[in-house]
Amino acid sequence: MNTILMKLKRRITFKDPVRQLKYMTLGREINEGLVFKLFLYTIFICTSYIYLHPIMKMIVKMVMDAKDLIDPTVTWIPSSLYWGHLQTAWKVLKYGNSFTISLVVALVASVFHCISCGFAGYALARLEFPFKKLVFFLLLLAFIIPPQVVVLPTIIAYSHLGLDGSLAALVIPALFGFGVKGALFVIIYRQFFMTQPKELEEAAKIDGASAFKFYVRVMFPLAKPAILVVFLFSFVWTWNDTYMPRMFLSEAKNVPLAVQMSRLDVGINQFMQAADMPLYMSEAIKMAASFLTILPPLLIYFLAQRYFVESVERTGLVE
């Protein structure tokens, strides 16, 4: 909040220095006022509760035993902690295999997005070439075209290439910056590279460096904030994606976690029939499966939260 107020103060200026001083003093008093802080914290707490309530409910539900699940008086505090639902969800999801597939696909796609979209963003930001404005217009147009429009031609192309049912079909679009994700990441890189001083390029041209060498040696290492933002966005986006994997891996046995979640009802019914378990326990197993699925992105966000917020500010997305 302090950062926002400082930006507003820098943008609003008065010709009269006395009025400017009064404005700065008023902004400081508002920022330090108790009522204003209470108002802000109330908004923050209410917003946090909206997002955290489903997660807390999921965690409580997955550790309830059979007695607590059928007891209407038990809502938030279970009488005992039961970890059997996590074990069942682990087996139903085939968690070890599915987690490995999701991790590899998300990491490879994220690295490809960081590389390919970085080249495109630098070209749109700093190079001059024919039809540059048309290319940028087509890039913006990619946000309008839904993936359902191009999925059928993509499936046909993958079938001709022999990639139908292969995990490579999930990472090839990232290699070429294809689709809505690629367009967004190119714009992120473009916004960052446009903020860099042109003196760097002029010095590189004097030394005889080509555009490619200048990008690899100078601009790409400087783009660490944009790389972090693109990597995290791409990782979480790919990890949670269910549409594309279900289109390309509809009959495959080895699938990512997101696809295993879409098959969860069938897997739970088969497991409960084989183990002769009551039906009311299926909800707790679903909660445990959901927790196992979202756990890796949550851990990554908690570890990289500070760097992620700083990187978003430095890429120019909040301007």
Describe the fold and architecture.
Helices cover 76% and strands 0% of the residues. The chain has helices spanning 2-11, 17-32, 34-62, 66-69, 84-93, 95-126, 132-141, 147-161, 168-175, 179-194, 199-206, 211-222, 224-240, 243-248, 257-262, 264-275, 282-314. Helix 6 runs parallel beside helix 9 (168-175) and helix 13 (224-240) packs antiparallel against helix 17 (282-314). The longest helix is centred in the last third of the chain and has 33 residues, at 282-314. Residues 7-12 have low confidence and may be disordered.
Low-pLDDT runs of 5+ residues are 7-12
- How much is the average pLDDT? 80
Structural class: mainly alpha
Strand content: under 5%
Total beta strand runs: 0
Q: What is the overall number of helices?
A: 17
Largest sheet at a glance? none
Radius of gyration, whole Å: 25 Å
Q: Could you say which overall geometry the principal axes of the C-alpha atoms support?
A: globular
Outline the fold blueprint.
Blueprint: H1 2-11, H2 17-32, H3 34-62, H4 66-69, H5 84-93, H6 95-126, H7 132-141, H8 147-161, H9 168-175, H10 179-194, H11 199-206, H12 211-222, H13 224-240, H14 243-248, H15 257-262, H16 264-275, H17 282-314
In short:
With 319 residues, the chain is mostly helical. It is built from 17 helices and no strands. The chain is 76% helix and 0% strand.
Which labels suit this protein?
319 residues, 76% helix, mainly alpha, single chain
